[in-house]
Amino acid sequence: MTDAKAVLSIAPKIDYRHSVCTESFTCKVCGTLVVPEGAGSRHRNHCPKCLSSIHVDNDPGDRASLCKGIMEPVSVWVRKGGEWAIIHRCRMCGTFSSNRIAADDNPAMLMSIAVKPLAMTPFPLNKLEELFGQ
After folding, report:
1. Which of 55, 75, 104, 125 could potentially form a cystine with 67 if both were Cys, beta carbons 3.0 to 4.6 Å apart?
2. From residue 85, how far is each of 7, 10, 17, 62 by CA, in Å?
3. In 3D, which of 121, 29, 26 has the Cα closest to residue 72?
4. Nearest alpha-carbon partner for 100 in 84, 123, 78, 77
């Protein structure tokens, strides 16, 4: 038994910075079985249904984070060239990360995240007219 543990501990860990991720996983937030097919890229890193992820990387693909907290989608942004990306924040340690959207991501969830700042302004919208004198 000890020999088996020794073999497992020295087995090389896959570095997803340079390898295709073919692993499936069950989303810890919504319970969806997430498979790599349909993502439209070589790296599936979040649930296409609820857009949540797990804090597994310190640097993209290294799987070196010890946190393992839930990464919640908090915003979206547009990368150079027009590609959308999701900003995730770890519920446990507060770390932020950016991940490209996947081809099969829930468009309603993406849009709800995108418009959230407009729906929850830090000032009353009816005061804009007073401020700009229109």
Report:
1. 55
2. 39, 35, 18, 19
3. 29
4. 84
- What residue ranges of the chain have pLDDT lower than 50? 1, 7
Which structure tokens are listed for 39?
């993502």
Q: Tokens in use for 22?
A: 């073919």
- Tell me how far CA of residue 27 lies from CA of 34, 84, 115, in angstroms: 7, 22, 24
Q: Where are the beta strands (DSSP E) in the chain?
A: 25-26, 33-34, 53-54, 70-78, 84-90, 96-100
Q: What pLDDT, on a 0 to 100 scale, did the predictor assign at position 30?
A: 95
Tokens of 66: 């010890």
89-119 residue pLDDT tens: 999 999 999 989 988 999 999 999 999 988 8
